Task: structure prediction
Amino acid sequence: MSIKAELAGKGLSVIATKLLTHEIVEPEGFTVLQRVATEISKHRASMAWTFEIDRGLPVVFSRVLDKNGRGVVPRMVVPGISVDQEYAGHSLPFTAFDIAIEIDSDDGTPVARWHVDLANKIDGVYQDGPLMHLQFGGHNQGFRELDHPLKVPRWCHPPLDVALVCEVIAANFFTEKWLELREDPSWCDAIALFQRLCFTAYIEKLTASLSVSSKTALHTMWASSWGG
Amino acid sequence: MTYRGIFIDDEDDIYADLLSSGPDLKIVFVPVTEVSGLAQTISQSGPDVVAIDYRLDEVVGAVPAGQLYKGSALAQHIRDIAVEFPDRDCALVLISAEAKVRALFDPDKTAHDLFDKVYLKEDVRASRDRVIFELSGLCQAYIDAKRSARPYNLSTLMCAKEADLPNIDFQELRRGTEGAAAPHILVRLFLRTLIDRSGPLIDHHEVAARLGLDSISALCIQRLLHESEAQYSGFLSAPWPRWWSHRIDAFAATLFGRRATGLTATERAMRLSELTGEQLQAARSPWNRSSDELIAFACASCRRGTELKHSLAAYDGALPKYVSRRRVCWDCVQTDAYEIAGLSIDDADNVLAASVRRMERK
Result:
């Protein structure tokens, strides 16, 4: 079930090209995705790789309109993802995971920010929350005053890496185009690869929790329980 | 080595002398005669470079009035011969007055691909040594291309190492290189998409922006950059020095412990100053003059380092996948300087551009 880096890189390159062809991602965003795809590919047969998508050069998606007709631009940044499919700790194939969707208005003001990340571990102790979680807010670069005051809830959520976040953005912001994309076998093959990487261990854990009546699923998925 | 060339003009012969002033290049002036015969004569004489003025039809000499032609017509004949006889191929450049280039050559899009480079006569006078240096390098590139086995091999031409191969593995680049039927087709592909544009290769200004330094300060860390082994040494690297983009990124990640462009220019300049002992100047946003911005690339117009937040997309037409789209800093938008650089704003950013011009943006 493990995925070689070379295959993951090629898959991400396919996704980048399809997003560009469908004008879902801007050329600048494509260049970043292609850069990451190439970096991953270079690890060849390895089952481990690390990458970053910084705020200076994020993946920029095409401009869309909000419900009031104002322009907004979705972007994706990755403070860091480290894949290690042979990791001996928790069963997820990630030793670091932090990815964010940031949406800015036309004048550059932050509108919304979500991130999916692995619970922080400080001095051997996990923060409260599910090991892998979805959270609203976080740090708005240059607009700290707009940082959301709440750090919760942290929703129990499977990992979504770059490819899967791209599909989430495509499906939600560019639905008509995604309806075409999802019929494209090359798109589906590439996405399926990252679904296997991200979902397999997570779903196994969640499914196993259903047969244990003494513990709630959320308890099982909680960082201090799952992460040990 | 001294490269030999020909300059064709209907009036000025001074540029042949200007370009022959050093030991590297000897250019002879050839007056205008009937087009196909002149192209044959030029081709058979085997020059390393042919320089042509755009207007060859202003002074009636040996050509009957009804058969006058422009530089592009002669260039087309020379290129046609080269496709049939690749060993006779040579560098072909346009040298014309700025007014004529702007008014006549720029709109003549079909002629643009015929010439390797376009030089303004004003630039030849003002920057003669640079033009001679570039022309000499171009001549050598043609000699190298003629000596290379065909079909051309991209990685060999680029002197790419094993680790570089994924960064140039693009179908259109590979096929364009392998399918080049003559040296000028190869030179055009390299100049237009690898040398003149950011992509697998980047120029000094892009390197400076990625490292968060102004272009002058970036010159102070040349030794460090050379140690990084990021310098490009392949085809056309002599006249137009470039750097491998991914090697610069890797080098910077080693220095900063993360991707460089995720740090402010100030943070990067401080780290580099500590490392080199030099007082390096951080790049400043052309818009707000702050060095606390995430300077990431060079403005396509002024070449100063700028950031995504305060820049707009330039219109780029159909873009090969390995080429980065050009962006223009808000300062150049506000002053319309980008138009002088021959750029236009992408339609998608036109509303924002208007707002920047009205100074409604901070």
Notes: The first strand of chain B starts at residue 3 and ends at 8. The first helix of chain B runs from residue 14 to 19. The two ends of chain B are 55 Å apart (CA to CA). Chain B has a mean pLDDT of 94.
